[in-house]
Design the sequence.
């Protein structure tokens, strides 16, 4: 992973969009660090949209309807929880500068949250940035078993439904690897990113519940041939 000195340039939503389109993204050393550095990984993590693995138990959880899934109804709260503001995760790469710039991106229609609710309470979710046909998954949180996993399944179904071609997860973790995430060289990633920038996907939130349900069914069917 290579880093670029942050310099003194203010982190703005416009700067973020240019950075993501070029294949780099900001991180902070900690929540309290006011500065950011730019990350340009030599190996990038992606989640292939046509090879997503859903364990059998998680399929049952999604189908059971135990979680209510909402889109973009509590974005500020999702990013704060991902940033560890509730002290469950005190160490985080999301500082105030990143949080504020991404909230501005949300106001501009580029950032989105997938939220899982239970008994009227936000218990999990994720957020990311949609640009062209690419979705840059930034972070997720969970305060109830499987809450963030259900959000991830719904994200994948929605991306496939809306014509996205790239789900960037930045770095691979054991958690993401279980769902089919892979690492690719930066050169290959940039080729995929450039192709995705040419795609004009559907508006991320502008799909019907019926369409989402159908997309989930197709996703389950695709995953059923894989080992769970």
Sequence:
């Amino acid at each position: 992973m290579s880093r670029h000195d942050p310099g003194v340039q203010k982190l703005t939503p416009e700067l973020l969009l240019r950075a993501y389109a070029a294949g780099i993204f900001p991180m902070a050393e900690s929540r309290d660090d006011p500065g950011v550095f730019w990350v340009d990984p030599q190996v990038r993590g992606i989640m292939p949209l046509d090879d997503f693995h859903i364990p059998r138990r998680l399929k049952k959880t999604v189908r059971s309807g135990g979680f209510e899934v909402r889109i973009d109804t509590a974005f500020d709260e999702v990013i704060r929880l991902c940033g560890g503001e509730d002290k469950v995760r005190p160490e985080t790469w999301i500082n105030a500068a990143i949080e504020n710039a991404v909230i501005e991106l949300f106001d501009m229609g580029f950032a989105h949250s997938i939220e899982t609710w239970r008994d009227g309470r936000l218990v999990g979710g994720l957020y990311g940035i949609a640009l062209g046909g690419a979705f840059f998954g930034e972070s997720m949180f969970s305060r109830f078993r499987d809450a963030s996993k259900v959000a991830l399944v719904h994200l994948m179904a929605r991306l496939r439904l809306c014509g996205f071609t790239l789900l960037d997860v930045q770095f691979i973790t054991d958690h993401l690897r279980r769902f089919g995430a892979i690492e690719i060289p930066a050169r290959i990633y940039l080729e995929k990113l450039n192709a995705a920038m040419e795609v004009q996907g559907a508006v991320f939130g502008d799909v019907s519940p019926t369409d989402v349900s159908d997309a989930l069914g197709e996703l389950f069917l695709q995953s059923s041939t894989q080992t769970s």
The radius of gyration is 17 Å. The domain at 2-223 is CATH 3.40.630.70 (Aminopeptidase). The longest strand covers residues 121-131. The chain is about 40% helix and 25% strand.
